[in-house]
Amino acid sequence: MPVTDIITDEKNLTLTVIADFAHPVSRVWRAYADPRQLERFWGPPTYPATFTEWDHRVGGRALYHMNGPAGEKSYARWDFVEIEPERSFTVDDLFTDEHGDPAPGMPVMRMRFAFEATDQGTRMTTTSDFASLEALQTVLEMGVVEGTRLAMGQIDAVLAGLREWFAGKGTRMEVLTDTLVRVTRAIAAPRSVIWRAQTDPVLIRQWMLGPDGWSMTICEVTTEVGRSSHFGWAPDPGVEGEPFGFDDQLLFLDEPFRIVTAGRMTGVEGPTVTNDLTLTEEDGVTLLTTVMEFPDAATRDMILGTGMVDGMEMSYARLENLLLTRPVV
Question: Can you identify the CATH homologous superfamily of domain 164-325?
């Protein structure tokens, strides 16, 4: 986690974020000057950003929106005020409508990003100035502090590169908050192939099996938002265990980038868990990131305690081997 401090100064109407990176200034600067890299960490995990316009010069602007798990969008704009390459840049950050026009009654922040070389790499200090205490409090109430920490927690993989950052790490689980967990797995295959493996029942039956000795008995997949997919597993003869299944309602689909579902065990009145899967491709590697949202910490711990992550790694390893031995096109 690169964020080392977040300072709220109500007297001077500022919010300051300090982050340290084990990379040179030139590398960190490139991540902030390239919209394709920036959008991979600008929004928090369940609200990733998409930059639709990028004019990186004084007087230019950038348009972006946050993408919610049900397809909702929140629009914003940067107006570039000052740019000193590999030293700093300053923007006016404002909420807008879908056309980029300022949203009435919403605060405007002047943000200065300053980059400084350190013995360990780079320190970036972001200072946001507000016109009033009310504007600062509005942004704080919107969850900007926690959202910033969650968003910046994604930047290390961008700076290092997917191939290097995830090499040999298998399936990784990170507890983000009491209710949010992030599971990541990198596979050396194009995103289009991984997308097919997530949506094609013929392929799903070949890898989404968990431990050896289990078979998938039900595999009904929908690509229609509002409808549900159904999955079921049963132990092979001689293997201990009870059959079980999941029903996943499709909340949002953006092919071939993102699938959001709300799932629960079949026939159980238990909790619903939101699974937000995104696919990111870089240098021949696709990163599968699943952000799981639980209703509370107790449910989170109960489900994680079932060995879910180990089962996911067994399935992903099987998929990886399948793609190596029988390439999917």
Answer: START domain (3.30.530.20)
